[in-house]
Amino acid sequence: QTADDEAELPDYSRKGADTCFQCHDDQVVLAIFRTKHAMPQDPDSPFGHGQLQCEACHGPAGDHAGRVRRGNERPPIPAFGSMSKTSVAGQNAYCTACHAPDTGFAWHGSSHDDDTISCADCHTMHVERDPVLAISTQADVCFDCHQQQRTQAMKPYAHPVRQGKMACTSCHSPHGDTPERLLAGNSVNGTCYDCHAELRGPYLWEHAPATEDCSNCHNPHGSTQPGMLTMRAPMLCQSCHSQVGHPSLPQDARGLADNMPSELLLGQSCLNCHDQVHGSNHPSGSKLMR
Amino acid sequence: TSEWACESCPFDQGYRAEIDVGATNVSDDAARFGNYTGYDEKGTYADVNGQGRYANEGYRVDWYVEDLGLDSRVVEIETGKQGVFGFNVGYRDLPYRRFDTTSTVFNPTSGDTLTLPGSWVPASTTGGMTQLSSSLQQRMIGTDRQIVDIGGNWQPDDAFRLFADFRRQTRDGVDITSAGSYTQAAFLPRWIDYETDQIDAGVQYRSDSMSVTLAYYGSFFTNQNPSLTWETPFLTAPGGTSLRTAREPDNDFSQVSLSGKYHLAAGNTVIAILAASGRGEQNADFLPYTINPDVVTSALPRSSLDAKVDTFNYAFTVTSRPLDKLRVKFAYRYDERDNKAPISDWERVIVDAINSRETEQNVPYSYDRLHTIVSGEYTLSRKWRLAAGYERKEMNRDYQEVAEQITDLGWGQVRWQPAAWLDIRAKGGASQRGIDRYNDTIAVSLGQNPLMRKYNLAYRYREFGEVVAAVSPLELPVSFSVSALFADDDYKESLVGLNGAEEFRATVDISWAVSESASVYLVFGQDRIDAHQTGSEQFGFWDWSAFHEDDFDHTGVGMTWRPRDSRFDMSFDYNRGTGKTRIALDSLSGGPSTLPTLESTLDSAHVEASYEFSDRLHGTFHLRYERFDLKDWALVSETTLPTVLTLGAQPYDYDVYAMGIGIRYRFGDGTISLVE
After folding, report:
1. Among all residues of chain A, which has the CA nearest to that of B2?
2. What would the pLDDT profile of A94-130 be if each residue is shown by its tens digit?
3. Confidence band of B5 (pLDDT split at 50, 70, 90)
4. Which residue of B has its CA nearest to A189?
5. Total Cβ atoms within 10 A of residue B598
6. Alpha-helix runs per DSSP H in B11-78
7. Per-residue confidence band for A168, with pLDDT thresholds at 50, 70 and 90
């Protein structure tokens, strides 16, 4: 919260939530009692003993709940109301006042913070099951802003995000942390190995770009090519391999099924023989064929 | 405020649950429709979904189930006392259904051995395999992943929190692999049997100004089928009728990390540090050079690799807001992978047939990365904000053509918010990835054309720009946003290899709250990737080139209708995704040539509706429709390629309905009422 915001804060209401519920008693508002924020036995919860109840998040409601002169508009609640004038940083300050130790410190200066994203842009407080915290519904929340990633998720070869069986947070840490690209792991590969541990190796015969960065060949957000590859094989492989003989040969329409079918183009292309592109542990596997 | 009691607050107490039970009929078999959903076969499936809670004096048990009747089922149970301890157990199935049009001549005698029918007659080409058509058996390609998750946390006081989580992921089923038998190859159905145990555990200290976490991460992978032995269907060298390949070896990885964040009131500054040290190990027994008794080899130099890879990650970040209008960030990060695998001399037996008589050394690749970021943002006024940043990435590698690579990136951003309803952001920048030198000696030793520049190692100049605009008029029930991104990669020092790539993405989102009870949306997305590469069939200057155009369009529309006073509500979503990949080549030997366009078209619709019979009982209906059509010239029949026996996978072409009805019953209180 900025100093300006604090300077403008009114008093608290007279009776806390009991005051609020005199007007706000619909099911949407009362759904807060199905959430972790309304646990009186937890002293850190907004409804814990001695806490500020509704006003812990919405700010002091003394003016909003007080008498209003005829002809005057009722002053808005400081935070999270439809007419609230509090800045995004000011609204987030209400959240980080409690959540700073576990998320707030990392949030500070993260790319989402830099983009002035409000906590409430992603989180829905007055529901029993916050959509952004559920795997089946999370992506729809993220795609509200990350629309280009929504397009990629619709591509024919993609992780099961579209089907609601994988969340964006399976790979990303949206509250920000020290790793780049908000990754959940310490690196791209470290994140991928969380589900694809079989590819961690180390192998006797390594494929250097695979050990370095899976995204050298794969687009994890989705691709039009099988295996989420960034380009169709064999051309993808030929972007790096130019050994004399078959790796250097152009694979064009001559090799199609109705012409002179080429094992270098059709089927799995280079992988027809060099299947072990992630590495081989066979003593005779230096060509990644075994 | 300390006297506030909230006498009217309806705190959560007792038991309540909501359970959906029904049946869904799927109109046709389609592996891809069942991919990740479990609806892969024609027939009727049980629908069971639900959630519930028991709460009493701060203790809670929450449960959630999803798709219990499908191979994509989810079960989650959470319990504990908030602020004191928590415990969770979860189970999750994830079906991966790849092909149901595949056939094979191979029979599994065990998870790691494939045999041919007794009547099999080997041939030098697939066309000469007289027993092929009579020996083919349909074999669905797909695997199932199961994840069991058990975790807990305990907060002995306000400052400390201990946490531990154990996950076991298993994956089994049949996938495709292919393997060569000298000048031929065969696609093999490969039985997968993976198990990975993962542990996250640690302790966190928290205060109003800092948090420190000491954590352990462990990953332990086991492959029950670390090799695959198969009988080759082709005529082969003497003794070489059976061949063996290695599969993924068991591996372990353990990492200890210490991370901390400290909030300084001065300048509203957060200092974050991370130090992590890990070790990966792989010591699976080696297979012999060959299982062909007619091929003479030396003894293996080692019986296993006994490989150790050490990883180090260090990060130091300072983010500060010294002025209300100014944000600054400095980040320094160092990552290292130090592969300590011993180097030995190895012979190479080519596909269990011929000893190459060449001695090769294994290459344990290592690298370190250093990433420095400086950025800042200044709020000029309520309407204007400016941001800029500079990043440098330094990469050092062992045993590769480029030892040192430095990428410098600069960017700037302008954000204009002239009114509460309009937000426009424009960002642009450029980066240059330079290299110390491209080591031709290493390239030539690998048999590479000395003019080849591998795209992940080569010099690259990149320009990019992005514009995002959001319009949300306060007085209108419509919101509108557009975005566009452009990136241009130029590998101008690469005479052979990838020369350049361009990407353009655009999106349009429109949503309209038609009334209090109805809303509609329309989204559109476009992704265009073009790339240009060159090659040399004469192993010199480039003499062939390829242009790639990879286009994808997505359109989505939908609506929800939930009248306040009606017993009926429904939602509808429709998505269409079309992909087209065009590849044109021009070569010395073949002249201009265009490959047929690779095309995919997805039409997907989803309708959900419910009717309220009573406070507790709802009737539900859902309909999914999906049509997918793929045109891919690479998917060919078993005999198309004379020297490769494929599984004959057909391009996807299906349209399937899944229609279901059910009831939703609620136990316990549904309506939340204030305490009188």
Report:
1. A50
2. 998 888 877 778 888 888 888 889 999 999 999 999 9
3. confident
4. B337
5. 22
6. 31-34
7. very high
- A280 touches B227 (CB < 8 A): no
Give the up-direction half-sphere exposure of residue B563: CA atoms within 13 A in the CB hemisphere: 6
A181 in B contact zone (CB under 8 Å): no
Residue of B nearest to A2 (CA): B324
CA distance A260 to B180: 20
Q: Cβ of A23 under 8 Å from any chain B Cβ?
A: no
- For residues B157-195, b (16+ Cβ closer than 10 Å) or e, as one string? eeeebebebebebbbbbbebbbbbbbebbbbbbbbbbbb
CA dihedral B40, B41, B47, B53 (to 10 degrees): -30
- Indicate yes or no: pTM above 0.80: yes
Find residue B432's DSSP bridge partners.
Answer: B408, B461
Question: Is B595 an interface residue toward A (CB < 8 Å)?
Answer: yes
Q: In this complex, is the C-beta atom of A259 within 8 Å of any C-beta atom belonging to chain B? A: no
Write out the two tokens for B376.
């800042």
Strand segments (E) across B380-419: 384-397, 404-419
Cβ contact A272–B544 (<8 Å): no
Q: Classify residue B250 by its DSSP letter.
A: P
A2, pLDDT greater than 50: no
Token pair of B359 as six digits: 């001695």
Q: Are B123 and B52 in contact (CB under 8 A)?
A: no
The C-alpha angle B620, B626, B629, rounded to 5 degrees, equals 175
Q: How many other C-beta atoms lie within 10 A of the C-beta of residue A274?
A: 23
Per-residue model confidence as pLDDT tens digits over B362-390? 999 999 999 999 999 999 998 999 999 99
Look at residue B359 in the predicted model and tell me its pLDDT. Answer: 92
For chain A, give the number of residues. Answer: 290
B120–chain A nearest CA distance, Å: 22
Nearby residues of A259 by Cβ (< 8 Å), 6 or more positions away: A253
pLDDT of residue B239: 80
Q: How far apart are CA B230 and CA B63, in angstroms?
A: 46
pLDDT value of residue A242: 94
* Whole-number average pLDDT of chain A: 91
In this predicted model, what pLDDT tens digit does every residue of A35-58 receive, in sequence order? 999 999 998 899 998 899 999 999
Interface of B with A in 95-154 (CB under 8 A): none
3-state secondary structure of A5: helix
Q: Which of B274, B554, B674 comes nearest A178 by C-beta? A: B274
> DSSP 3-state assignment of A214?
helix
Kindly report, residue by residue over B267-317, the tens digit of the pLDDT. Answer: 889 999 999 999 999 999 999 999 999 999 999 999 999 999 999 999 999
Q: Is the dihedral of CA B395, B396, B398, B402 positive or negative?
A: positive
Average pLDDT over chain B, rounded to an integer: 95
B264 to chain A, any CB pair closer than 8 A? The answer is no
What's the pLDDT tens digit per position in B599-630?
Answer: 999 999 999 999 999 999 999 999 999 999 99
Q: What residue of B is the nearest CA neighbor of A215?
A: B456
Chain A residues near residue B505 by CB distance under 8 angstroms: 148, 151
Flag whether residue B542 sits within 8 Å of chain A, measured between CB atoms.
Answer: no
Amino acid letter, residue A276: Q
Q: How many CA atoms lie within 13 A of A253 on its CB side?
A: 14
The answer to whether A149 contacts chain B (CB < 8 Å) is no
B636 at the A interface (CB within 8 A)? Answer: yes
Q: How far is B281 from chain A (nearest CA, A)?
A: 7
ipTM: 0.95
Looking at residue A233, the DSSP 8-state letter turns out to be T
* Model pLDDT for residues B536-562, shown as the tens digit of each residue: 999 999 999 999 999 999 999 999 999
Interface probe, candidates B9, B104, B311, chain A, greatest A C-beta count within 10 A: B9
CB A202 within 8 A of CB B282: yes
Residues B629, B581: Cα–Cα separation, whole Å:
14
